[in-house]
Design goal:
Low-confidence stretches: none
Strand content: 15-25%
Number of strands: 18
Radius of gyration: 25 Å
CATH architecture of the largest domain: 3-Layer(aba) Sandwich
Strand order of the largest sheet: 1-2-10-7-8-9
Distance between the termini: 65 Å
Number of domains: 4
Helix content: 40-55%
Length: about 500
């Protein structure tokens, strides 16, 4: 399709039968902290709490009555599913929504309430897509693609059209969350045609960076696996048409981590009292990162807040990680001499800083280890404090970016087992489904003893598990085969200093 056709498609898109023109709101607190004017394009307040309703309806409303009577099928983790279900209810047609078994329950329930038929299958979009296509072929139904369809792209492009209408004054950058690429393709095609000086920057999670890699390599890549914390953008391969448009019109794609997304959720809450889902906060996290990297001030930035379908039980994890992402909390491990007055000296060196967590554990007759969380204003404070402690003969280690420390050790400090031999410490991500633990246990050699096991539900679609297993050195090969056959993502942590200080024998 000629690129110029998208301007006409977007201008003539049928979205407002069901979608609303969302506001473009200044985020005053965030703008003040970042030193730039940051506007939020509030797609999180659409009727289905996501921009996806635009593309889904624009595709479906242009089907013939005969096609609608045969029904539609889509594959989606949730937001596109709700858009299709809502549109089907409005157009009075049958809709089958194929969703992964790991889809957040809030999205599954929302689709069911809208009257669509939900089929849960597999663990990824690929599993859902294959089943959805099979249903279409068997029943003569129409597949509504979540992103790689010109009418879907045009529907999403109306977000860009609204931004220019709502802000006719100069704009510097528009930040767009990227999954399969439908939103950024539509927005970029429209903006670059009318205001080519405005930069379009995509934002992806570090562990779901399909568009970033594809643009760097000049061809679509297929990721072997993706992180699913930001489930709304957990896509292994971007669309063919969306990639073509991104190559033409997107200026850059940047990556942000989970902590940054959690911090962005908090930022938006503080300005709007609304709670975004992780994918919905991607653009805000990207805007903050870009402004800091470029060292710019006084520019006008727009971040598209794309969705608010957040599972409530994720909020606990988001709240914990937000302080890390905003660099407002530091975690340090401190070794102090086990003698009268040493603990008091250490506390005096901390000074008036707010202590967010404090764990002390006797280690031997000579030393003690302390695990401390501290509120900070900036990262330089941590280095200054560690240097100050070193000058007093106290050894300290910054664990702020240590995943093992943040996820597990802070909840297990003091769990030493001095008589445990040959302990291997492994951090796993278990699929959050019945039978995952049993599968792990039955695959283990009966001669290996579990010496430590820690699990904590973080509101994600996978469980973060820490396991200590006693494995004799001569069984290294068998243990390696077990881990490979198990198929769960894992990290060997026996050499991690956080483990050696607080848990190791």
């Amino acid at each position: 399709m000629p690129l110029n056709d998208y301007l006409e498609r977007i201008l003539s898109a049928r979205v407002y039968d069901v979608a609303v023109e969302t506001p473009l709101e200044l985020a005053p607190n965030l703008s003040r902290r970042v030193g730039n004017q940051i506007y939020l394009k509030r797609e999180d307040i659409q009727p289905v709490f996501s921009f996806k309703i635009r593309g889904a309806y624009n595709k479906m409303v242009k089907l013939s009555r005969a096609e609608l009577d045969r029904g539609v099928v889509c594959a989606s983790a949730g937001n596109h599913a709700q858009g299709v279900a809502y549109s089907a209810a409005h157009l009075k047609c049958r809709a089958i929504i194929v969703m992964p078994a790991t889809a957040p329950q809030i999205k599954v329930d929302a689709v069911s309430r809208l009257g669509a038929e939900v089929v849960l299958i597999g663990e990824s979009y690929s599993d859902c897509y294959a089943h959805a296509i099979k249903l279409c072929e068997e029943n003569g139904m129409t597949f509504v693609h979540p992103y790689d369809d010109p009418e879907v792209i045009a529907g999403q492009g109306t977000v860009g059209m609204e931004i220019l209408m709502q802000h006719p004054d100069p704009l510097d950058v528009i930040f767009v969350p990227v999954g399969g690429g439908g939103l950024i393709a539509g927005v970029a095609a429209y903006i670059k045609r009318l205001r080519p000086e405005v930069k379009i920057i995509g934002v992806e999670p570090t562990d779901a960076n399909a568009m970033y890699l594809s643009l760097k390599l000049g061809e679509r890549v297929n990721l072997p696996q993706v992180g699913i914390f930001a489930d709304g953008v957990a896509v292994k391969q971007v669309g063919e048409e969306t990639f073509r448009l991104a190559q033409q019109f997107v200026d850059d794609v940047i990556l942000v981590d989970t902590d940054a997304m959690c911090a962005a959720i908090k930022d938006v809450f503080e300005d709007t009292r609304s709670i975004l889902e992780p994918a919905g906060a991607l653009a805000v996290a990207g805007a903050k990162l870009w402004a800091a990297r470029q060292k710019v001030e006084g520019q006008t930035l727009v971040a598209i807040t794309s969705g608010a379908n957040m599972n409530f039980d994720r909020l606990r994890y988001v709240a914990e990680q937000a302080e890390m992402g905003e660099e407002r909390e530091a975690i340090i491990a401190v070794t102090i001499p086990e003698k009268p007055g040493a603990f008091r000296t250490f506390c005096g060196l901390i000074g008036a800083r707010n202590v967010t967590e404090f764990n002390y554990r006797y280690a031997s007759d000579d030393i003690a280890h302390v695990f401390v969380g501290l509120s900070i204003q900036n990262r330089s404070e941590v280095a200054d404090l560690i240097e100050k402690l070193a000058n007093e003969g106290i050894i300290a280690l910054d664990l702020t970016n240590n995943e093992l420390a943040k996820l597990h050790i802070r909840h297990l400090v003091g769990g030493r087992a001095p008589h445990v031999d040959n302990e291997r410490l492994i951090r796993f991500e278990f699929p959050e489904r019945p039978g995952a633990l049993l599968n792990f246990l039955t695959g283990m050699n009966v001669g290996w003893n579990i010496s430590l096991f820690h699990y904590r539900n973080h509101g994600a679609d996978y469980g973060r598990v820490l396991v200590g297993i006693q494995v004799p050195a001569e069984e290294d090969a068998a243990f390696g085969d077990f881990l490979k056959k198990l198929g769960y993502p894992f990290w060997l942590e026996s050499g991690n200093p956080a483990y050696q200080l607080f848990l190791g024998a």
